[in-house]
Amino acid sequence: MLLWLADFLSQYYHGFTIFNYLTLRAIFGVLTALGISLWLGPHMIRRLSYHQIGQSVRDDGPKSHLSKAGTPTMGGALILVSIAISTVLWGNLNNKYIWVVMLVTAVFGVVGWVDDYRKVVEKNSRGLPARWKFFWQSMAGAGAALFLFYTAQDPVETSLIVPFFKSVSIQLGPFFMLLTYLTIVGTSNAVNLTDGLDGLAIMPTVLVSSALGVFAYVSGHASFAQYLLIPAIPGAGELVIFCGAIAGAGLGFLWFNTYPAQVFMGDVGALALGAALGVVAVIVRQEIVLVIMGGVFVMETVSVILQVASFKLTGRRIFRMAPLHHHFELKGWPEPRVIVRFWIITLVLVLIGLATLKIR
Questions:
Q1: Rounded to whole angstroms, how far apart are CA atoms 226 and 232?
Q2: Is 17 helix (H, G, I), strand (E, B) or coil?
């Protein structure tokens, strides 16, 4: 929106052309989202507390979590509002990718909001039934997959890029839609499973989104893409605004979500942010790199799958409790230790992911 205004004002003062620089708008996008989060956060926490929208805690979980009962939840709405305002202000609204990521994020956010609302307001422990949650997630994921497939202008936009190799790519054809669907829905639920400790999910999300912003920037810049031997995706560079907004909003939310948390993200934030990471990774053709950088999300998800499969097949549990972060808590790790160590792991994995830009 401000880009349109700057273009208009540049007719009268050439200095406004500075806003055409993507890097500058990305920086302002981060700061805007951060500022909105920090400004609206206290007000939102007070409103959630006033309406008694508090977290319920499982009795069979770590005993240290019992004190968290009643902590305001659904705070992920703060993140989504900050992302939306920042992206609309600083992004190029003529760019199709901006609208794809915004709409996917919004739909998953609504699904999460309904689930949270039914749990904490209507006191329905089931929340949104799993079949309906999966249905709406599938509709949004499939919709994005269809759109991206049928609007692709180059075969590289529907190819699977294998990192660490110079010219290894697999043309997926219609299977691109299946991969896109699995990436978006899978990442959404993986982030949601990780969101079980104060700040555990949001910091990895900030780190991964920042790295995806780097991929978006170089993918949208033909010269950089050619030099780094990665797919050149016209228009993808604009996603650095969206990724920056996620990072800024996430850091602002972490101000209130850090241990001991004043507010929890809830499904409204976790499902939406996971879907956002997934769709950005698809657009910049870095699904495999997303798996690497989001290794903590992957570990958490795999731990749940293994736990359920083992219990059903053998009657025994592999972990003391799943997802994985609860296993370490029950082994005696203090919550802050689990959180920070998972952050460190994510930072290392993100650096490995970024290394794929050059190591080929």
A1: 7
A2: helix
Q: Does the pLDDT at position 121 exceed 90?
A: no
DSSP state of 162: P
Which residues are 166's β-sheet partners? none
What digits encode the pLDDT tens for the residues 310-344? Answer: 999 998 999 999 999 999 999 999 999 999 999 99
pLDDT bucket at 168, cuts 50 / 70 / 90: confident
Which one-letter amino acid corresponds to residue 311?
A: F
CA distances from 244 to 86, 140, 209, 253, 294 (A): 9, 23, 7, 14, 17
Question: What distances in angstroms separate CA 143 from CA 15, 157, 190, 305, one per listed residue?
Answer: 41, 17, 20, 27
Greatest Cα pair distance in the chain: 74
Q: ∠311-312-316 over CA atoms, to 5°?
A: 25
Position 339, amino acid: I
Which single residue is written with the structure tokens 């950088």?
293
In the predicted structure, residue 57 carries a pLDDT above the cut 60: no
Cis bond leading into 323, ω under 30°?
yes
- Tell me the three-class secondary structure of 35-76, residue by residue: HHHHHHHHHHHHHHHHCCCECCCCCCCCHHHHHHCCCECCCH
Q: Are the C-beta atoms of 30 and 22 separated by less than 8 Å? A: no
